[in-house]
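*** Query protein ***
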Amino acid sequence: MKSIKKSLLSRKSSQDSSSSKKESKYSTPTQSASSSAPPPPPPNSAKPLPPPNASSNHLNSASYSSAQTSSSSARSASQSQPDHAPLRRQDAAAPPIVVVSPDPPSDALYRGSNQPVAQDRSSLGLDHSNGSVPRNTALNRLRAGPKDTIPMVGKPPRKQRSSRFVVTEKVEIERLPPFMEIPPAERPQLFIKKLHQCRVLFDFNDASAELKGKQIKAQTLHEMLEYITTQRGVITENVYPEVVSMFATNLFRSIPPPVNPTGDAFDPEEDEPVLELAWPHLQIVYEFFLRFVENPDFNTNMAKRYIDQPFVLNLLELFDSEDPRERDFLKTTLHRIYGKFLNLRAFIRRSINNVFFQFIYETERHNGIAELLEILGSIINGFALPLKEEHKTFLTRVLIPLHKVKSLSLYHPQLAYCVVQFLEKDSTLAEEVMMGLLKYWPKVNSPKEVMFLHEVEEVLDVTDPVEFQKIQVPLFQQLARCINSQHFQVAERALLYWNNEYVVNLMSDNLAVVLPIVFPALYTNSKSHWNRTIHGMVYNALKLFMEINPDLFDESMQQYRQHKIEEQEHAVRQYDAWQKMRQIALKNAPNNKMPEGYVEPYRAPPPPPVTIDDADILDLSQELSAASIDDVPGDLDETGLERVPMADPGLDRPVPQVGNHEHTAEQGLHARRKSVLPVDPTVLRDLQAHRSLDDPPLQKPR
């Protein structure tokens, strides 16, 4: 009986397998869903399906045979579930695609909708119920491959006021005991725990959030600052990585784009900057790191493994912060690192040069140029003599081109100090510096021109007489143009050179070269300049030249007169030549008439002859001696300077009288701010309360 039963079962199974093979030859993949086998998962399931194997092929063939005996509802349901097995066999190694979408997962759409999706998939080319095999293209592989849909949860991140984007999870830190309350043997371990605790960041955009945690962290930072300042032997080998890690976690961040606008809406000299909201914690971190580096127990050889070149680069990126308090601490921190780590000095100088190059030739916007130049000023002061070619190249390729940037006023004092430091080290660089300044001399920016005149005077103060002879001709040609300027501040600043005793000595030693260059400008402005203050200063300069060398002064007067006569004769010859050309053109024209429509341009007659009499030359000394500015009524103050009305009195006040100089405390010379940004009193208070570490401590009242 058992053998008969086995033969019947084997015959039945062979018939089933043969019938299933015939049906599978004519059936399509969409008709192969079995009611007994579980349907394949939707194409957007959370996990990709594994590649099919031999057993799965056998199950698929079995499901083909059982599909004909299923009901019509099951068949329609099976048709709505496409099979991706053929595509997965061809591209089994294709990685899954992650699609970020704010919509809910698509399997919910399959469950919630009564309409089949086969029509939509057929329009996309993903439904292969017609028996056609899709083309093996990259787009089809991407469409047919398994997908992980990650829904977007929550709202997009709001605009942060702080420069750091912190995590939104609420973090609580515990209050650790103070150092003085535990035995000395346990303090090193407690120090490490406190360093770990201070790596936690808090969101300062919400002033009322996590107040307890912020207070605990600030107290912990103060405790560590006092501990490292007052105790000896607390800096061990395992402390270095923890301190550097805590410093980097709190401070290293990407500086966001500037909040303040550019252009006329923002004046960096008058408007308050945007302060860092997390400064209560950042300030203590900076102070702690500075005390750590300055500690007598600090070992540079141990620290150089952690304070390396990437650390310096991250530190330099922070110099673009808009908070001047942070830039002040960064300046001190980088200077301490430069002094401690000899192996990083060349890299620091090279990295600062790269910041300058990007500022000069690419962005023309950086908040920390003044602080970086201040660091370089002290570095240049320590250069050994003779100067290396690297340092001279830095002067000519970096410092001199910094003069051409529009925002020169933000860092010009520090830049001029660096240039003067180079000249004090090597006076032979004066010619190269002066020619560079003349190359970048502003043409239409009068305030910038005044700054150049300030710097040139500082350069002349440290220039040797031998080097002065190399630059005197181009320099005084530019000074003559400045004296002729209609901007009275430019002319006034140029004439102040005659109040510098050293510059006057240089001019007197080379008067034969200097006087013929500047005399025409001085004489012309003594007669025609609109500002009376300039008249008085020009008279003083001419009188000084006349007292130094009267014969040369008279000779310059005669040369000036002869030059004016030659100019007038040249103008007459030019006018006569044009008249002769006109007569020749009329003679050659038909009927001695010009063509119709021709409009002859008007040519002014030559100027009248220059009336410079010998009496004017002979009596010039009397004019200069008799020139007095005491009798000018109402327009000069007690110091002899002209009273100029306010340049920007404001829109809501009338322009004051010229002679009225009574100002109240609320109304200054420039009371109306150039910017339209509102004034934040908290910003002004915080800036006034900030004190640099380089400043002397305030004396407490007794």
DSSP finds 29 helices and two strands in the chain.
